Amino acid sequence: MVKKFIIKGLVQGIGYRPFVAKIADELNIAGWVRNTGGIVTVMACGSEEDLKSFHRKLSFDVPTGGFVTDIRIENVDNSDEFRLSEKGTGFVILESDEDVQENLPLIPADIATCDTCKSELLDPANRRYMHPFISCTICGPRYSIIEKLPYDRDTITMADFEMCDDCRAEYTGKKDRRRHAQTIACKDCGPSLKFVRLKYKITDNVTECGNVDNIVDIYNENDIVSEISRSSQLIKSGGILAIKDIGGYHLACDPFNEKAVAALRILKHREAKAFAVMFEDVDKVREFCNVDNFEADLLESPARPIVLVRRREDVSFPQNVCLTSPDIGAMLPCNPVQIMLVHECGSLIMTSGNASRDVLEIDNDRMTAWLQERVNSGELPEDVPVGILSHNRRILRPMDDSVMKVVRGRKQFIRRGRGHVPNPIPVDISGEIFAAGGDLKSSFCYVKDGLAYVSQYLGDLEAVSCQQFYKNEMTGMEQIFGFKPEAVVCDLHPGYFSRKMAAQLAEDRALPISYVQHHKAHVAAVIAEHHLQGQVLGFAFDGTGYGEDGTVWGSEVFIWDGKGNMERVAHMKPVKLIGGNEGAKNCDTILTGMLHAAVQDDKDTNPNAKLIAAAIDNNINTVVSTSMGRWFDAMSAHLDICHYNSYEGQAPIELENIVYTNSDKGIIAREFIYSVADFILTQAKKYQIKQVVLSGGTFLNRILLERTIDILEAEGFQVYISEQLPPGDGSICLGQAYLAHFNILHHKLRTPS
Predict the structure, then answer these.
(1) Range of the domain at 220
(2) 695 and 750 housed in the same domain
(3) What is the per-residue DSSP string for 436-453?
(4) 742 shares a domain with 597
(5) What is the CATH number of the domain that holds 221?
(6) Catalytic annotation, residues
(7) How many whole angstroms separate alpha carbon 81 and alpha carbon 611?
(8) What would the pLDDT profile of 110-153 be if each residue is shown by its tens digit?
(9) What is the pLDDT of residue 657?
(10) How far is CA 598 from CA 470, 591, 595, 652, 657, in A?
(11) 415/681 Cα distance (integer angstroms)
């Protein structure tokens, strides 16, 4: 009996074909397995009983990191369709072919080094001892190195490296755990490391172009142990090391070396934000933090995200690493290079390898040029050495670390990136849609076959580099997944770059386009993620969003009827404030606007208060705002905590952090935050809709979110937050797609003329 199995799901890049072949061999089934575009096709010949067992195992068993969504079985009568390899009988893995039916593929995210590979890495008797690119069928880079489907050696950047005979034998060996591991490599045939140390002083080293060469290259080819040793030595001596990892560069230093940390802040222009810290394992994290089981599971998950965990009060940790934060952004090593460095050096600061607000760097030459420029600037102390540990495996798309925390038993993304992208989110959305998202903390998504593919964090689109990043990822996702959107949706804001990209796409392809209000998209994203049915009361609190009346919204309460209609039913009183980017950053100016609107000018200590009030009264560069975020800014300034947002959300973050000090200011800050939660409860009681959604960047405030969940659930309300996307603007693309779905159903889309 011969049967054909067509298997859909996340079945490429996880060792699924060797997994199928192993099951077939165990059941004495002949035939073949191959990648077909983005799916897997199996031809199997055996007894009826064995084929039933085969189907059962394929339905319920899957390698780590994968899942099966559907298995279609066809009886095969044509002997030409059932063909074996040239070797004759048995079960074999065939070369991949194209998917003529264009099934939607699922591609794994980059996967952390598995425990078995880690053991081999640290085993002096293993041939891959200290091999910085060790991997197998269930671990290693995936999405960051794929050029096109199907996922094979020649369609990923490992195609640049020819396998040696030993690796080839493992790759083809029936019982080897690296059978058909596309990232297989060893010291003799794989990518290589390169360590360089930058000089501080101009020397007489002159390149062929006549330029002064300030780089000291002390790389010894194939001397991997030396490269790791020299890198470790630089860190231990108080230096800063740029490390090329899976998704791009990190900058690392010793968190316990105050001078190195201070130099790193100068290097990145990151004076006011806490740094993440990489620990060797969860036990090391627990030496400094209180880690519950949920947080430990997240830390050890294959995604290896940064997880915000509460610092222990009985153990000190360097102040200039965490600054005012009560948490440590803890992470565990996700690749062999990190494993070896942390093993040698102990805990390390690990922060993204780029200047603040720029795209994560993936190119060796650009990273070298940027670091050399920073070193030559004279801003860094000359006794802090700077080095680069790079490799020659190409990274095709930058992928920042994912950042998460746990709030009342729920996981919450702060940033969604490596380890989670491009994993799709199941949604009740029909058709094929491109949703452009927003411009701050941007991401976009493609939706097809009820799956939303949300891009990684793309940064703030006011930066030209982030705009190009956005364009590249749009093109890349379309090419890899074969998306052909039938409709386009974007934000209402007329000045958004993301809106311009959406409009251009709609015009170029004559596609219908719809425009969705920012905060409605926030609420809709949570509704879509949780598949909520019926009425929903939604709260969308953040810093800014273009309203349907042309003003700035940000403290919005909506009722969703479950049928495609969302009504704005409440918000904070509109206040006239100074507009523009500077107006949103200067907390003193915001406070002056708030006091002026409340006719409390006599309580304003701002020396520029009269000038600001005059500008507001004469409508000079003003906006009308209901933003909740601006209230947090004003309170932070009022309590003399933070007067200027040097990065987005700094004042609200500092306001939250001071609560944990239990100082007089902290008590006032807590009462203010609790009053916001009380406002939410008042609205919930007023409308008596049991399903309540909380969304928007303001709900990254742990105190606010915990308090709101507690008091709502105590009154019998069911509370939902984003758990697969950030609550901020990184989620609005999903909400846009969900509302566009209803616009399509109700024929509310516009087609460009």
Answers:
(1) 193-391
(2) no
(3) ---SSS---EEEETTEEE
(4) no
(5) 3.90.870.10
(6) 17, 35
(7) 82
(8) 999 999 999 999 999 999 999 999 999 999 999 999 998 888 89
(9) 97
(10) 42, 11, 5, 21, 27
(11) 28
